[in-house]
Design brief:
6-stranded mixed beta sheet, 32% helix
């Protein structure tokens, strides 16, 4: 993580198996994800609201243009990864925003990953039915 130039702020966010690379530039609130318009990429309203939360927490809605490349996982994980990436990029922009974002838990990386499947079982935790015979 680090500022690429004076007016461009970069950060990486991760969630489940998704990785989001986020660039913030001062602007009028335009968001581009993988070359598509933000509203087109995230079809569900819940995911759009999730991604915009860090801006609302620091009263910066419409002050930054966001350009992001997201890969891996599903849309929900990608939205979570973007949330973390945006929050980290805002801290790059102004370190004093850290306490506000940390209080809302936007800077916490959610460590939950899918558990691997174990051999001799039908899933990660599930066992085959026991029979005494």
């Amino acid at each position: 993580m680090g500022a690429a130039s004076a007016d461009k702020y970069y950060a990486t966010g991760r969630r489940k198996t998704s990785i989001a690379r986020v660039w913030l530039t001062p602007g009028e609130g335009e968001m581009i994800v993988n070359g598509k318009e933000f509203n087109d990429y995230f079809g569900r309203e819940v995911l759009r609201l999730l991604v915009e939360q860090p801006f609302e927490a620091v009263s910066a809605t419409g002050k930054f243009n966001v350009s992001a490349t997201v890969k891996g996982g599903g849309k929900s994980g990608q939205a979570g990864a973007m949330l973390l990436g945006i929050a980290r990029a805002l801290v790059e922009y102004d370190p004093e925003l850290r306490s506000v974002l940390k209080k809302q838990k936007f800077l916490t990386r959610d460590p939950r990953e899918k558990e691997r499947m174990k051999c001799g079982q039908p899933g990660a935790r599930k066992r085959y039915q026991y029979s005494k015979r």
